[in-house]
Amino acid sequence: MTQTPLKPVHGLFAIVGFLVCVEVASGVLQGFYTPIYPDIAEHLDIPEGDVNWFEAAQLIVSALCVPLLARLGDLVGHKKVLLLSTAVTALGSWVLAFAPNFTTFLIGWALQGAYVVWLPLEVSIIYRRTARTGQQTRLTRRSAAILVGALELAVIVGALTSGALVESTSMTVLLMLPAIVVTICLGVIWWGIEDAPGESTGGIDLGGLALITTVLGLVMAGLVVIRLEGVGSVVAWLLIGVGVAVLVPFVRYENSLEQPLIDVRLLASPAQWPVQLTAFLFGMSVLGAQIPLSTFAQTDPDVAGYGLGASSGFVSTLIGVYVVFLAIGAFTLPLSSRLLGPRAALVASSALVAVGYGMWLAMHDTTAQALTNMAVIGLGSGALVAALPATAAAAAPPERTGFATGMTNATKTVGGAIASAVFAIALTATGSLDGPDEGQAPLSGYLTVWAVCAVASLAAAAVLLMMPKATVEEETELPVVV
Fold this sequence. Notes:
Helices cover 73% and strands 0% of the residues. The chain is mostly helical. Helix 3 (52-76) packs parallel to helix 5 (102-112), helix 4 (78-98) packs antiparallel against helix 6 (118-129) and helix 13 (273-286) packs antiparallel against helix 21.
């Protein structure tokens, strides 16, 4: 007697369709909040500089989630971990909607960072689903391209939605919308994706996870103390110094394991370290500068003496322009690689990002200038977003391509987290994390943000010049977005 399965086993087209729904939710999360950061700050009664701590907390959680959950997916099954990470993201999103204060909101924001592992898990699901088709690589690339296209479209939709609704509804109702979208994803994943067991053996490197968590925790704690007590704080620099020092036992421990959480030897190879360091430097601008750009645009120049006095709706437009040019930069990467050569195209892309942020230093008085700056930044950023994961994979042995690709996400988020904390310090006017008095961030703080992003991008261009040409011989077909 044949038993009827509880759930249908869907074909690849249907599975990609279900995963598109997940990427739509990811895009909503990435685009929804940026236009309303100043409104959130007002809702929580905090100054705009402290909003950067939201981003720093989430990015740290994200950086730790990627290697841990990716490894767990290999062990117990990718669908199970996709469900787990979605449930955590949904919990964080609901906490945001009803958070009564800064601390609660910060916790919810950190939990929401679990969504960063969605795309790597989805690609793994598709890759496994297409096994024995004879077209595994091609089908995976095409499917992932569809997912990325859906994500980029959803970023724009999320930004336009929040910008349009912020003035017409309460903050609680507004913040419930992304929570609802993510919650729906739980049902979509449960029904649409077949549950396959994990194929990997061994366990999870909890010792390595504990050590790298200690490193990041101490460094971020030091930055928080600098925020509260100033750059002259001995305790702050001691915390940062100890955090950096813990990297020594971490590297030794990871090198002693057969299956480490982070393959330090691979990351230190001549073909890998320039890619990973570039991802770190790139993360400082592509992730760390989002909130400062939003708060600057919405600052009233009649009150602060600078800013665009823009509405949340205009910030949505600004994000839309940026994402459109990001997509253009990503999808024209093969053309620029043919014209300039693969490595030169990456160097040029980093230089474009540097030029864009350099333009902010001199051009920040009008909306037209802001749109021009973001278009230039978007072109360069899109090419880097598309190329770095594939470049890392090409420079890794076949059995470690997933790790190398995931680490570009992890190092990028670490760079963004540290930059977010530094930018929060630069933008500080008065008060503390608990209950600051009213005050505008100084213009010098924003100039510092843009200068750091420009210098980091120039440094990335220099680092890319050290990458062996063989690492980037093949052109990138697939744009991959966090």
